[in-house]
Specification:
binds L-MYO-inositol-1-phosphate; 7 helices; single chain; about 30% strand; D-Maltodextrin-Binding Protein, domain 2; five-stranded mixed beta sheet; alpha+beta; 14 strands; Fructose-1,6-Bisphosphatase, Chain A, domain 1
């Protein structure tokens, strides 16, 4: 077995365990532990507990690796591999009783951004949806559910227009700019979805359920696993430089559709 496949298997086992813990805590009732960047940006007790579980399991299985998670301090490792972890992506969905939340675990080598790391393995486990998306560098992407295991492929054609997902983040000062961006992209869209969990948006792009996804201000742990899943499903993930609030935009889909969205966002589109 390759190193990448063994990292994926470990991530998958831990993501299942972590997802079950999240689901159990959700059934018992969620308590908000704190607000982060804004009052709307919350962390629940479960986010912290689930990250502690993932961190402890990784530390015992691979003590030389680094760790970079949403809810705790980063630590550098000696192996050159770092685990990039969002214990519950879609925390607001989770706290509000909606099923679109996921545990996201990726193993990367190199830097701490999409542009500077090389992702080796990634897993997105959505426990309340019963689906696990995963990818190994150079080994393709798949989804597992009660229906079995299927390989993933990004949609390449959308004659009725592209079904595009986006997100708006928690800072109300940025919403007007994001709505303006949606307006720019609308001419090539069939319709727009707002799922509320970047890891799931990216996994759905990989599965061809969504044609594309874009959002400003994602954090490395929101996208590390999902971006690898998209690229291993034949898609492309690009980042545009920061806007006036310093937020980079992440765009995922087929390479051609990502290009069309970029042209519309930066205002160089000649079509429509
Ligand atoms: C969230 C994302 C969501 C995005 C938010 C936030 P969290 O992650 O997945 O789609 O709009 O800005 O980043 O905070 O629930 O892990």
């Amino acid at each position: 077995m390759t190193l990448e496949a063994s990292l994926r298997d470990l991530a998958r086992d831990i993501a299942f365990e972590a997802g079950e813990l999240a689901r159990r805590r959700r059934a018992e009732g969620v308590s908000i532990a704190a607000s982060k960047s804004t009052l709307a940006d919350i962390v629940t007790e479960a986010d912290r507990e689930v990250e502690d579980l993932i961190r402890a399991r990784l530390a015992s299985e691979r003590p030389d690796d680094g760790f970079f998670g949403e809810e705790s301090d980063a630590t550098a490792g000696a192996s050159g591999i770092t685990w990039v972890v969002d214990p519950i992506d879609g925390t607001v969905n989770y706290a509000s009783g909606m099923p679109s939340y996921a545990v996201s675990i990726a193993a990367v080598r190199g830097g701490d951004t999409l542009a500077t790391w090389e992702a080796l393995a990634g897993v997105v486990r959505a426990p309340a949806l019963g689906e696990t998306f995963s990818a190994v560098r150079g080994g393709g992407a798949q989804v597992e559910s009660e229906a079995g295991t299927q390989s993933l492929a990004v949609a390449m054609e959308f004659p009725a227009g592209a079904l595009i997902a986006t997100g708006f983040g928690y800072d109300s000062r940025t919403h007007a700019d994001d709505i303006d961006t949606v307006q720019r992209v609308m001419p090539i869209a069939r319709d727009v979805r707002r799922i509320g969990a970047a890891a799931i948006d990216l996994s759905y792009v990989a599965a061809g359920r969504l044609d594309a996804y874009f959002e400003r201000g994602l954090k490395p742990w929101d996208l590390a696993a999902g971006a690898l899943i998209v690229s291993e499903a034949g898609g492309s993930v690009e980042e545009l430089p920061g806007d006036r609030f310093g937020r980079r935009m992440t765009i995922a889909g087929s390479a051609a559709l990502v290009e069309r969205i970029v042209e519309r966002v930066v205002g160089t589109a000649s079509e429509d």
